[in-house]
Design a protein that fits this description.
Radius of gyration: 17 Å
Largest sheet: 3 strands, antiparallel
Low-confidence stretches: none
Number of strands: 6
Distance between the termini: 31 Å
């Protein structure tokens, strides 16, 4: 389920948990979980711990403390390469420092567990590692991987099944469901062959 909580498709970070009213709100989600449990259906609401799509007052995020910085001290956003125009397109989703994952999850965890749903999607944690060049609190990609693995390990402990996107090798051991897993090699120097 994408866009089911915290403001819809352009959601706030998963610090608070507020189900979208037009989709039934909290009671509607609890009814859906109850039905799904009776029918043996797995429901995976998606929460993005890696990017800030929208900010609100008291959402648990301070750009100064929690957003990723570039080497020249600017905030960075999620970009994807578009082969048709041969350039990167930005989504204006500000990258979140991996050091903030634990703070967000600590506040989010109990509220979500109370719903009784034993499944969760954290799609971007399976594909994206963001370095943070903040002068006061810098982290490189290996640090980011460690923070991401720590959160995935907690999710794996707390839920029956965890869903990720892409399935980078660091995420595979914690994921039960992987969407959009690559079926071929990138053909880069060290990965020339597909298995």
């Amino acid at each position: 389920l994408t866009g089911y909580a915290n403001g819809g498709l352009s959601a706030t970070v998963p610090y608070k948990l507020k189900w979208v009213d037009v989709l039934g709100g909290e009671s509607g989600f609890l009814d859906l979980v109850d039905y799904a449990n009776k029918e043996d259906i797995e429901i995976y609401p998606d929460f993005d711990f890696a990017y800030i799509h929208k900010q609100e007052i008291f959402d648990g995020i301070s750009l100064k403390d929690d957003a990723v910085r570039t080497i020249d001290n600017r905030y960075t956003t999620k970009r994807q390469y578009d082969a048709s125009i041969q350039t990167f397109k930005t989504s204006f989703a500000v990258a979140l420092s991996p050091s903030s994952y634990e703070k967000l999850y600590d506040n989010f965890r109990d509220k979500y567990l109370k719903t009784g749903n034993q499944y969760i999607s954290v799609a971007t944690l399976g594909t994206d590692l963001n370095s943070d060049f903040n002068d006061d609190d810098p982290y490189h990609r290996e640090d980011s991987k460690d923070f991401t693995k720590a959160l995935l390990a907690r999710l794996d402990e707390d839920y029956s099944k965890v869903l990720v996107d892409g399935g980078n090798s660091y995420a595979v051991e914690y994921a039960d469901v992987i969407l959009n897993a690559s079926l071929t090699s990138s053909k880069y120097n060290k990965t020339r062959e597909s298995i």
